[in-house]
UniProtKB/TrEMBL annotation:
InterPro entries tied to this protein: Ribo_uL30_ferredoxin-like_sf, Ribosomal_uL30
Molecular functions (GO terms): RNA binding; structural constituent of ribosome
Protein name, as recorded: Uncharacterized protein
GO biological process, one term: maturation of LSU-rRNA from tricistronic rRNA transcript (SSU-rRNA, 5.8S rRNA, LSU-rRNA)
PANTHER family: 60S RIBOSOMAL PROTEIN L7, IP16805P
An example Gene Ontology CC term for this record: cytosolic large ribosomal subunit
């Protein structure tokens, strides 16, 4: 009986969370569009870094879960690089309480490449389970030589300027598996938006301050 009671409780809790998320998504799109109350001028086609800092347990809302997977963030503490578009902004609004995003500088991107890359095997196309540091020009030439990139500096330049080969690079670099920042989080603010004193949502260039504690 006790086990059945817990299962019912869990089901009810998940239903309430799912309903709450659905209402939040509806408010974002039907009332406020995809922009926050204080209008932010986003830099289209700019490089952005998206980091999933919440959601280690089951996410009840299927739309939120699907969007996280679509963004390349299937698990907590994963991160991806993206080209900023209207479509991406809309997706980020769906998963807003679960992610932190902003404009990374070259130092942070370089650290991600050097420490947290999981490359795909050239022979099988299968993604490696553990980070494979991308530190040698030979690695870059083997992976991206066909795109005209022969050294780490070429790769960094193409990523930072979000060049014509950016999407091809993302396909091979895949998702970065990271850790929590040094010092951790304040649990009471993890799901609140940055604009109201929380951790989640858009940070602009301030994301680099956070990532200095992560990478």
């Amino acid at each position: 009986k006790r086990t059945s009671f817990r299962k019912v409780n869990t089901f009810v809790a998940h239903s309430r969370i799912s309903e709450r998320d659905a209402k939040r998504i509806k408010r974002n799109f039907l009332r406020k569009g995809v922009l926050p109350k204080k209008e932010v001028k986003y830099k289209e086609n700019q490089l952005v870094l998206v980091y999933r800092h919440r959601g280690s347990k089951v996410i009840a809302n299927k739309e939120v879960l699907k969007t996280l997977v679509r963004l390349g963030l299937p698990v907590q503490r994963s991160a991806t690089l993206h080209r900023l578009t209207h479509e991406l902004i809309a997706q980020l609004k769906v998963v807003e309480p679960f992610v932190i995003w902003g404009y990374p500088n070259i130092t942070i991107v370089q650290a991600l490449l050097y420490k947290y890359v999981r490359l795909r095997c050239l022979q099988t196309g299968v993604e490696t389970k553990h980070p494979v540091p991308l530190t040698s020009n030979k690695q870059v030439e083997d992976l991206f030589g066909s795109l005209g990139m022969l050294c780490v500096e070429d790769l960094l330049h193409e990523i930072m300027k979000v060049g014509p080969h950016f999407d091809a690079i993302r396909e091979k670099l895949r998702t970065f598996l990271l850790k929590d920042p040094v010092g951790g989080w304040k649990d009471s603010t993890k799901g609140k938006l940055r604009s109201i004193g929380g951790e989640a949502g858009f940070r602009g260039e301030e994301i680099n301050i956070l990532f200095q504690r992560i990478v």
